[in-house]
Amino acid sequence: MGADWSVRTLAIVAGRPEGVGQPANVPIVPASALGLGYSREDGTPTWVALEEAIGRLEGGHATAFASGIATVSAVLDLLPAGAEVAVPSDSYVGTRAMFDHAERMGRLRCRRVTPADTEAWVAAAGEADLLWLESPTNPSLELIDIPAITAAAAGRAKVVVDNTFATPLGQQPLSLGADIVVHSATKLIGGHSDLLLGLTVAADEELAGLLRDARTRGGATPGALEAWLALRGLRTLGVRYAEASRSAALLAERLGKHSAVTRVRYPGSGAMISFELAGPDLADRLCERLRLIRHATSLGGVESSLERRAARAGDAHVPAGALRFSVGLEDPEDLWLDLAQALDSVG
Ligand SMILES: *Cc1c(COP(=O)(O)O)cnc(C)c1O
């Protein structure tokens, strides 16, 4: 399709049926057989519309999966036994669990790299088979220097970027030299905490074909309803991302000035903030005292939610008093009122 409209516009127009008399939106097509085609192999019109839209937003060839984590599985499925992968020491807990398991089973060799340690990534680019990047990272919102690392990896290690937090509105990693982008559309693309879905987007068609084959073999196909809901969510991603970014910037600034808050991390755009209180007890009390912001896991929905990740198995490396805060679309002044009353009562 090439460069055409802006990402914000493409989120609205891409993947719609074309031609006189066509519906505005692709229908939900619950089908396993489509004539001689079988949906696990060929997809359904609903998945294909979502894939076309996300492919255009990221500038590559998209494949939809049952979940974000199924995309990690599909990428690992392409690696021969004994391959070496580098993975960020702070990254989505399920991704790290997948790499840890593959290593324990003797399938892969894993190297854990501190997200901001660009030198270590550049060294890994010359030695590893695959670099798995995630930026900003979940849950600590660390940043990885994607262009420096793709430049070092060119013609050597393949580079994958989990773009769940930034979304294509924040960055388009394929244009920065990455080979594959993955998304958990469960989060910001879906945007309403009502579905599980993942997508891979490959820069070249051959790699996209290999990922599609991995889906056919592995069987982690998306549901018809989920694909439709993800496409429906995508239509408002531009305004949701812009509004959540505005609110998050305001809240990050105010959090930084509150005496109970010892540290704030906000990458400058996007819906996610990480902030720390002096210890786990204070952070747990804050969670209990919030009245508007939900004390809940997951992120990227229209409703704000917050969670102390170190309380969860697999995220013990996160500071004990750190909270991952997903900023939704409520009035930001109401969000601040809620945070301020809870912070005042614990601090
Ligand atoms: C949630 C998440 C995933 C996993 O996605 P699921 O849809 O839950 O399987 C992967 N990467 C990141 C950054 C996530 O936040």
Automatic annotation (TrEMBL):
Modified residues (N6-(pyridoxal phosphate)lysine): 187
Transferase among keywords: no
Biological process, per Gene Ontology: cysteine biosynthetic process via cystathionine; transsulfuration
UniProt KW Chloroplast keyword: no
Alphabetized InterPro entries for the sequence: Cys/Met-Metab_PyrdxlP-dep_enz, PyrdxlP-dep_Trfase, PyrdxlP-dep_Trfase_major, PyrdxlP-dep_Trfase_small
Cofactors: pyridoxal 5'-phosphate
A GO molecular-function descriptor: pyridoxal phosphate binding
Keyword line: Pyridoxal phosphate
Annotated protein name in UniProt: Cystathionine gamma-synthase
Origin organism lineage: Bacteria, Bacillati, Actinomycetota, Actinomycetes, Pseudonocardiales
